[in-house]
Amino acid sequence: MPSKKEELLAQIDRAVKTCHGCRLWRTATHAVPGEGSFKAPIMFVGEGPGYHEDKLGRPFVGRAGSLLDRLLLRNEISREEVFITNVVKHRPPDNRAPMKDEARACLPFLIQQIKVINPKIIVTLGRSALEVFLKDKPIGEMHGQGFKLGNRVIFPLYHPAAALRSPAVLQILERDFRNLPKIMRGEILPKEIEIKSKDINQMKLI
Ligand code: SF4
Prior knowledge:
Distance between the termini: 30 Å
Strand content: 5-15%
Order of helices and strands: HHEEHHEHEHHEEHHHH
Radius of gyration: 16 Å
Largest sheet: 6 strands, mixed
Structural class: alpha/beta
CATH topology: Uracil-DNA Glycosylase, subunit E
CATH architecture: 3-Layer(aba) Sandwich
Helix content: 40-55%
Number of strands: 6
Number of domains: 1
Bound molecules: iron/sulfur cluster
């Protein structure tokens, strides 16, 4: 019998699949609500589904997903320990970044997923996901470090797709990723961070 949390996640999935909250559903093939363990201590939040994700309705299944899988394996983090989703649940055309109004429209789903799963660590992949949690913070300064936000740790990383385009970014991503198990084990303590623009949605995330 599914647990209460599994039922709630299934409800969110159904709501995503019938959502017309922004323009993105019109050009997408499938909604991609996210997948993983309902009791995951780590949640990965990417930008939005790409070509392969849109075709299959699953997150991170293309080349960027393979890289993420390799990084998880190399750092001995099992799939059972993670939940993977995106800022927007339908694919932006031509893999462009989500627009602000699209990210805002989709945010309630991410907030609900966080509330249900209650992860200790949220790994943001790329600039769009970082912007949702830590506004106006450049990824170039934040990547690879943990930041305390309420009861959670936000751990910003470069997006695996960016790493596939640049060997230098790949090297940084591989190095940064090695900090994730250390943060999980409490060997690296998260930094305190001042949130200047506390908006209502941001506060709902923590
Ligand atoms: S991207 Fe999000 S807000 Fe936009 S239609 Fe899809 S589920 Fe709804």
